[in-house]
Design a protein that fits this description.
Structural class: mainly alpha
Number of domains: 1
Largest sheet: 2 strands, antiparallel
Number of helices: 6
Order of helices and strands: HHEHHEHH
Oligomer: single chain
Strand order of the largest sheet: 1-2
Shape: globular
Length: about 150
């Protein structure tokens, strides 16, 4: 006797590879950028008591390495190419006619533009800069998803 009910898929591991080209606009070295001081001041001021955003949700035992501050909205290296009208749709405080300097100021000083992440969840293979967005977000709620 057969049934048309779908069978459960057994738990399994699957190697993921993502490869594409990022076209970064010309930008100053981060340490030479005048907005870097504001970013560093924010980092120093908010470091006390900070925990990894992912570890806080799915378990700190998954975290590895020191805490780092991540630009969660827009990478600083691409800020000068951001369309202010597009940013304004999600972040009304960024004016539709904002200049690249206005956007950089906003990125360097806006609390909602940052996430504290451990090195693994920032730059490691389970990191915001490495894993696909869908996978990175899923690991917030599925402990051990990316190993």
């Amino acid at each position: 006797m057969t049934t048309n009910e779908p069978r459960a898929v057994a738990a399994h591991d699957r190697l993921q590879t993502h490869r594409y080209v990022m076209r970064y606009p010309e930008h100053a070295p981060r340490a030479d950028d005048p907005h870097y001081r504001a970013f560093e001041a924010y980092r120093r001021h908010h470091r006390a008591g900070a925990v990894c955003y992912v570890g806080e949700r799915a378990g700190r035992e998954q975290c590895a390495g020191a805490l780092e501050l991540h630009h969660s909205v827009l990478e600083f290296a691409v800020a000068n190419a951001a369309d202010p009208k597009a940013l304004h749709k999600d972040f009304p405080e960024v004016g539709e006619d904002a200049t690249p300097d206005d956007i950089a100021d906003w990125l360097a000083s806006t609390p909602g533009a940052f996430l504290w992440l451990c090195a693994f969840h920032h730059r490691g293979h389970g990191g915001a800069h490495t894993a696909s967005h869908a996978d990175w977000t899923a690991q917030l709620y599925v402990p051990g998803l990316i190993t």
